[in-house]
Amino acid sequence: MVLGSDPEKDSLIFHRAEWLPENMEMCPRYVYIPYSNNRGRDAFGTYTDYRETTAGNQVMASALLQTDAVIEGDGTIVPKENEVNVYYKTGEIPYDADGQPIQVVVYREKTETQQREVTETKWVHQAAARNADGRYILRVNANFTDSFGVKKTNAGVLEELGFKAV
Fold first, then answer.
1. Could you tell me what percent of the chain has a pLDDT over 90?
2. Contact of 65 with 13, CB cutoff 8 Å
3. What is the pLDDT of residues 73-103, one digit of tens each?
């Protein structure tokens, strides 16, 4: 801290920040960032709530620095930024930093009940009837819908499919 003519208005307070360079050949180090309430001084930010306390022959100072700073990998000092969610009322038009309207996307969950007709096929073991000539006969009900959507059945129609057991 460097005291000026007035500690609250004309002093320089230095904030120590760690710098980790992008170039791995360089060593990490501390950088001292100046803060002052005097606009004539080349300082990064300002401070408020300045307080001094004395303990024997030492003077200790305390202040709230505005804005907090971080050092990027290339060595530039930038304000520390925190992301904050911003909420808008329904119908309100949000604008960006340049005053341009921001496109808003609203996600609405839509739940609807639908009925679907499902045909389940169940396989059933059916005993075959044996004829005198050695053939087995199986009775099968074949209800189906053709490719044109017409429902069909094999009721009253005798169809024969021959299979040879090997």
1. 1
2. yes
3. 888 888 877 788 878 888 888 888 888 988 8
Q: Tell me, what DSSP letter sits at residue 28? A: P
Please tell me the pTM assigned to this model: 0.43
State the Cα–Cα distance between residues 52 and 164, nearest whole angstrom.
107
* 46-55 vs 58-66, strand pairing mode: antiparallel
Rounded to an integer, what distance in angstroms lies between the CA atom of residue 126 and that of residue 155?
18
Instruction: Name 151's Cβ contacts closer than 8 Å, sequence gap at least 6.
Output: 143, 144, 145
Query: DSSP character for 147?
Result: T
Cα 159 → chain centroid? 62
Q: What is the CA radius of gyration of the chain?
A: 42
- As a whole number, mean pLDDT of residues 1-9 equals 70
- Smallest Cα–Cα separation from 65: which of 128, 111, 16? 16
Phi-psi region of 154 (alpha: psi -120 to 50; beta: other; left: phi over 0): alpha
